[in-house]
Amino acid sequence: MKTSRSFRNTLNRLTEKTGEQCFKHSLSVKKNMGRTSYNLKEVVPFDEELGSYPIDILKNTKTGSVYCPECRKERTIERESEMILKAEQGHRLETTSKMLKNKSLLVDSTIKEATFETFKVTDEATKVLKEKAVSIVSSILSGDTNNYLLVGEVGRGKSHLAMAILDRVNKDSYKQGKARSCVFISIHAMISKIHNGYGLSDLEYQTYRYTDNYFKELANRVDVLVLDDLGSELGQINSKTEASDSVTKILNAILEARQGKVTIITTNLSENRIKLAYGDRIESRLKDGLENNAILFTGTNDKRVNKPI
Ligand SMILES: [Zn+2]
C-alpha cells in the first residue's frame, strides 16, 4: 500500500495511533530471544514509505472515531461493488418489467390495457374463468412451469384474461424484486410479420426485425409467454384446413424453445382441429405439461356485446 506523502502528512496530523492492532490485519510481533517472528493473521505488505506494517488502529483526533485503515478501505470497496450490483439489478428489473409493453405484438390494441380489474364478470361462468385465471397467476409466481390452454369461441374474453395474467405476474414479480419477463404475442401478427420479411430484398432483410429467428430467440428468453389465438392465422377454418409447412415449422421451433417455461395459448380450435391443422407433433407439444390446465371458455356471455375483445 503506497500512500502519497502529502496525504500521509495530513493523516498524521488528524490521527493518532491507539496502540491497538486490528485483529484482522495485524501481524502480531513476537520477540523471541533477540529474534523477531511474526504470527501471521493476514499478510499486509510492508510499507516502505511508512517503514512499518500499516496495522495500527487509528483514532481520528477531530471526530474521535477509531478504525483500522485497511478495514475501512475494504468496506469502501465492498460498498461500491454493492452499489454497482444494486444499480445493475435495478436496471435489469426495469428492463424485464418493461418487456410486456415493449416486446408484445398485438392485433387488437385494446388488449394491451387488459387487466383483471377491467375484466367484466357478468355471470357465474365468467366469475369461474376469472378465478381460474387468478389461480394461474399464483401457480406461475410459485415457480410452476405448466402450460395453459385457454379454449373457447371468439369473443369470450380469452385474450383479455391471458393479458390480465401477464399483467399481474409482471407487476407482482416486480414488487417481489425478481421480475419475470412476460410477453404477449398474437400468432396471427407474428406469422404476418415473418411472412412480410420473405418479400424483402436481401439488403432490407438484413435489418428487418421480425424474422423467425427474432421470435425464436424471444421465445427462448421470455419467462411467461402468451401465444394468442392459435388458428387465427389459418383464415377461414373448415374441417380440412391445414397450416402451411412454414407456419408449422415456426410454431414447432417456438414451442421447442418454450420447454420448461410457462406458455399460455389461447385458441378457438378444439383438440381435434389442432391435430388436423398442425399435425401430431404440435398437438403433443401443446399437451406437454398441460395436464389439467386447459380452461374451457364455454357457456359465457359473448363479451363482444360489451367490448370488442
Ligand atoms: Zn483491519
Protein traits:
elongated; P-loop_NTPase; 10 strands; binds zinc ion; AAA+ ATPase domain-containing protein; disordered C terminus; Rossmann fold; 309 residues; DnaA_dom; 10 helices; AAA+_ATPase
Describe this structure in words.
The chain is α/β, with parallel strands linked by helices and 309 residues long. It folds into 2 domains: 5-73, no CATH class; 104-305, 3-Layer(aba) Sandwich (Rossmann fold), CATH 3.40.50.300. It has helices at 5-14, 69-103, 124-141, 158-175, 187-198, 202-206, 212-221, 245-257, 271-278, 280-287, and strands at residues 15-21, 27-32, 35-40, 56-60, 66-67, 147-152, 182-186, 224-230, 262-267, 294-297. The strands form 3 sheets. The chain has a 5-stranded parallel β-sheet. A 3-stranded antiparallel β-sheet has the order 1-4-5. The longest helix is centred in the N-terminal third of the chain and has 35 residues, at 69-103. The site of zinc ion has 6 residues, from helix 2.
Question: What is the number of beta strands?
Answer: 10
Largest sheet at a glance? Answer: 5 strands, parallel
Share of residues in strands: 15-25%
Biggest sheet: strand arrangement: 7-8-9-6-10
Uncertain regions spanning at least 5 consecutive residues: 28-32, 300-309
Q: Please report the first level of CATH classification, the CATH class of the largest domain.
A: Alpha Beta
Distance between the termini: 69 Å
Secondary-structure-derived class: alpha/beta
Number of domains: 2
* Average of pLDDT: 81
Hetero ligands: zinc ion
Sketch the topology as an H/E string, one letter per element: HEEEEEHHEHEHHHEHEHHE
Q: Tell me the CATH superfamily of the largest domain.
A: P-loop containing nucleotide triphosphate hydrolases
CATH architecture of the largest domain: 3-Layer(aba) Sandwich
CATH topology of the largest domain: Rossmann fold
The total of helices stands at: 10
What integer value in Å does the Rg equal? 32 Å
Proportion of helical residues: 40-55%
InterPro entries: AAA+_ATPase (IPR003593), DnaA_dom (IPR013317), P-loop_NTPase (IPR027417)
Organism: Vagococcus humatus
GO biological process, one term: DNA replication
Domain AAA+ ATPase: 144-288
